[in-house]
Amino acid sequence: MPKPMPKVVNVAVVCFVLFLFGLPFCTRMGNELLDTVDNYVGLMFLLFGVFIEGILFVVHFGFDRFDEALRTACGVTMGPIARNYWRITTHFTMPVIPFIIFVWDFVKVCSNPYEGYPGWMQSIGGLLLGICLVLIPVGALTAVRSGGGSRLDEMPGFKLAAGNKDDSVRKE
User: Fold this and answer.
1) 109-125 tens-digit pLDDT
2) Cβ-contact 90, 55 below 8 angstroms
3) Is residue 95 packed enough to be buried (19+ CB in 10 Å), middle (13-18) or exposed (0-12)?
4) What CA–CA distance (Å, rounded) separates 38 from 121?
5) Within its chain, how far is the Cα of 90 from the centroid?
6) I need a labelling partner for 150 at 20 to 30 A (CA). Which of 58, 87, 111, 138 fits?
7) Is the distance from CB of 86 to CB of 57 less than 8 angstroms?
8) pTM to 2 decimals?
């Protein structure tokens, strides 16, 4: 196994690479480039990320666990109207609306370039968005391969909700 690089070398390399990536933002077109990257990565990828989180919430966390977490953390018991409202919000609104806005913004950018900026600038934004989108399945596959998946069942809130009280979890 190769010897790991010292932390100082790792930090120096990361700082130098990020410095080089930041230089284009210091040019005459830097503000426009920042605006483009912010639109593609800061807006579109964020919307897609919220969509993925909404799906993960519905599939892995679940509404009953949300209800129990709210009761455990805040001492709030939801009535039937609040339960129905939050069930609709968590199962429909959270995943669907961000995905619709993401698709709408993506189609809009494909049909009419963002703010009329040049094509090379749009390409940089699109490339960075593509890299970010590819990192989601790569991260998921890496987690599955490492035997991962969800570790939510190991969290103290789950143990309290399930009544599995052990010494490391104190109910206050």
Assistant:
1) 989 989 889 999 999 99
2) no
3) buried
4) 12
5) 16
6) 87
7) no
8) 0.74
